[in-house]
């Protein structure tokens, strides 16, 4: 085959624009199986995620998706578009909020806003991007927000 070869990748530092909002597709419909598997895999035996009878008597009236699943899925939805193959390291989170529950059967849609970017002072050829990830359910209700910093390569210095 002699056709052009294109490898999917995220953005180099130089391609990020402050204020840009990236909409990530596809959305992700979350299931009971996702919740039970993630919850037990991570040893989080919170009844709010596993016990339907107990959860029915709690304020939300049903089991909630594990918030760490929600966070992981929201950030994970950004990888192909923003950091696949261009990341050096995830540096951390400064804010994580879950203003509304995510339930079994909800569909989560994620987006990421570039808040700030700067070249690293200590690591030439790399830059730090500050992102605000937001996830909404199928009704447009915000279910999660997280601000994180990630280090990425500049295109000129990428390995």
Per-chain topology:
Elements (H helix, E strand, L loop, with lengths): L20 E9 L2 H10 L5 H4 L1 H5 L10 H16 L4 E11 L9 E13 L6 E11 L5 E12 L6
Antiparallel strand pairs: 1-3, 2-5, 3-4, 4-5
Widest sheet, order of strands: 1-3-4-5-2
Radius of gyration: 18 Å
State the distance separating the first and last CA atoms: 26 Å
- Could you tell me the CATH topology label: Thiol Ester Dehydrase, Chain A
CATH level 1 class label: Alpha Beta
The CATH superfamily name is Hotdog Thioesterase
- In total, the number of domains comes to 1
Low-confidence stretches at least 5 residues in length (pLDDT < 50)? none
Strand content: 35-45%
SS-derived structural category: alpha+beta
Largest sheet: 5 strands, antiparallel
Indicate the CATH architecture: Roll
Helix content: 10-25%
What is the number of strand segments? 5
Report on the architecture of this protein:
The chain has 159 residues and is an alpha+beta fold. It has a 5-stranded antiparallel β-sheet, covered by helices on one side. It contains 4 helices and 5 strands; from the N terminus they run E-H-H-H-H-E-E-E-E. Helices cover 22% and strands 35% of the residues. The two termini are 26 Å apart. 25% of the residues are buried. The model has no long low-confidence stretch (mean pLDDT 96). The protein has one domain (13-157): Thiol Ester Dehydrase, Chain A (Roll), CATH 3.10.129.10. Strand 4 (126-136) and strand 5 (142-153) form a beta hairpin.
């Amino acid at each position: 085959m002699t056709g052009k070869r294109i490898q999917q990748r995220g953005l180099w530092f130089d391609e990020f624009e402050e204020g840009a909002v990236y909409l990530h597709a596809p959305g992700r419909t979350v299931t009971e199986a996702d919740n039970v598997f993630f919850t037990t895999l991570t040893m989080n035996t919170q009844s709010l995620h596993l016990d339907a009878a107990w959860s029915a008597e709690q304020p939300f009236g049903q089991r909630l998706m594990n918030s760490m699943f929600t966070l992981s899925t929201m950030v994970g939805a950004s990888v192909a578009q923003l950091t696949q193959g261009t990341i050096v390291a995830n540096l951390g989170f400064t804010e994580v909020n879950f203003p509304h529950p995510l339930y079994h059967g909800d569909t989560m849609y994620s987006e990421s806003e570039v808040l700030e970017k700067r070249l690293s002072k200590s690591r030439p050829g790399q830059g730090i991007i500050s992102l605000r990830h937001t996830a909404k359910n199928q009704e447009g209700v915000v279910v999660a927000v997280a601000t994180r910093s990630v280090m990425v390569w500049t295109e000129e210095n990428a390995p």
